[in-house]
Write a structure and sequence with these properties.
Helix content is 37%, strand content 23%. The protein is of the alpha/beta class. The strands form four sheets. The chain has an eight-stranded antiparallel beta sheet, with helices on one face. Strands 5-6-7-8-12-13-14 form a seven-stranded antiparallel beta sheet. Strands 17-16-18-19-20 form a five-stranded parallel beta sheet, sandwiched between helices. Strand 2 and strand 3 form a beta hairpin. The structure holds fructose -6-phosphate. The site of fructose -6-phosphate has 15 residues, from helix 10 and helix 15.
Amino acid sequence: MCGIIGIVLSSSKALSKNLGRVIRECLKNLEYRGYDSVGFAIVSSEGLIIRKSKGKIDEVVSKLSFDEFDGIYGVGHTRWATHGRPSDVNAHPQTDCSGKVAVVHNGIIENYMELRDALISRGHEFRSETDTEVIAHLIEEYKRLGMSSYDAFKKAVTHLRGSYAVAVIDVDDPGKIFFARNTSPLVIGISREAKFLSSDIPAFLDYSRDVIVLNDDELGYISKDAIVIEKLVDKDLRLEFDRVPPKTEFIDYRLRVRHIDWTPEMAKKGGYPHFMLKEIHEQPRAVADTLISISKELDNIVKLLSKADRVLLIGSGTSYHAALVGSLLLNELAYVKSHALISSEVRWFINSIDDDDVVIAISQSGETIDTLLAVRDVRGKGALTIALTNVIDSTLARESHLSIYTRAGPEIGVAATKTYVAQVATLSYLAISLGGYMGTLDSNKASELKSELSLIPEVMSTTISTCEPRARVISGVIGTKHSMYYLGRGLGLPTSMEGALKLKEIAYIHAEAYPAGESKHGPIALVDEGFPVAFTVLGDEAELIVSNVEEMKARGAWTLAVVPKGFEKSVKLFDYIFELRRISYELAPIVYIIPYQLLAYYTAVTLGYDPDKPRNLAKTVTVV
Ligand code: F6R
């Protein structure tokens, strides 16, 4: 995830500030979308000025003196690295060979390798490791073939597969900022003094509240006097380098302008009351972006894992729960000896770790000290280490032999949500691929699971919208309780553990998860009239759970369940249910955690707590 901004002033005096300063202010409002490098391109009377650098916004703007640059139009970018590590050269804007075209981009161009190779063979020289740079060279190539700048831009967009919001300056067509959107968000802001393009409304909220939200496959430009929006009618991914402009339909932008009355604080959260709720809603996108990017990265890792004697997955808190899901799937689908360990406990297993082991270290932040220390210990014993993290170039990534990156975008709420589902989706993909590669999973079954996985983001969206009203209602009951159990079997256990962690973290209600079959060996002693027990039922294990529910009900428990549709005994067994679409058991952890996240969130809100900043907790724990 990155933040992009484009600004065209109506006159050189508009907004009464240097353009560099306005870009800086807008980028600061987008900082939550990424903060590993920053840059801008401004067109002034002296021509195109580009400044960019690795680092956080506050450091970079003073280092590069953003505020001193003035001009009439320009673009800016704050980066969350996906392709290419954070560095000065990989920071945006990215340019073509001539240095006339400057591009800022948010998203992932899936077919960038293919485009890059084709452009290199036509003489283009690439400087960065980014996927974005192909856009600048594609535009340049079509201009070389004789197209106008704007047609060349439109033509370039037709070749892009993946997600993108782009803003482009081409000095050969002065005064305009071209834009295009597919999947990644992009909005236009309008005021008397300026027009804005941005990844999100808060960027320009101090200047404009009249907005146009762009839709997929829309492109166009803003200039001092115009807003042009067109819809691409056909997307031609073939790279034949002909000069036929793409077919588009013009859109009357005046019909799309809406006035918003958000406060800047509300807007940063995209209209949601808390980052946590926003991030729960971002989960389908987090999983989709992660799946797109890992599907190309994991081949090598699959081969390495196939040779390992044992695969250990380590992590803390929520990341440990992802490790549990991963180890169960590796055992089940790939018949690999695999165990999950809590990072801070790894030292007690160190004597048995050796160079036949592979250790997958999971951490959204990549900075958790317990996980870093464990990685150092196991490396010392010769194990191969693979980081699974959401932060490119984090300490964990740098200290591990190899890295896999989730693409959830920055997570601001302290309680992990979207990074967890992205981790689980990655490990599911890995286990299915390894099972297919090792032949323990029938190749048809592996393909079926992968196709189903690609549809999971859609299922997640529906699940969020159907579970949210129910979570609000049930939170009223949970908010009156002091303690709660979450029970499940198999993959339902880590899902229960994660559900319990969320409730205790943000609603401060004691919650414990147990294997359902284990509940009768002690925990049941606490259960009396009205004691809440949540059951996680993912699919095949449903019948095994029935007797555990009956045991609890016989002691007066108040029962809640997350169950797949069609589980006939639900009505008889449970006081409240979240009924979810039935999906393969192996993939259910990615989706079935959603009701628990929403339940914890609404319970915290009902009780008057701030779910974004739970007491005593920090987003990144760097102490042992
Ligand atoms: C739970 C939570 C913590 C983290 C844990 C590990 O909502 O946020 O339990 O999961 O501190 O953090 P990372 O994944 O950054 O290593």
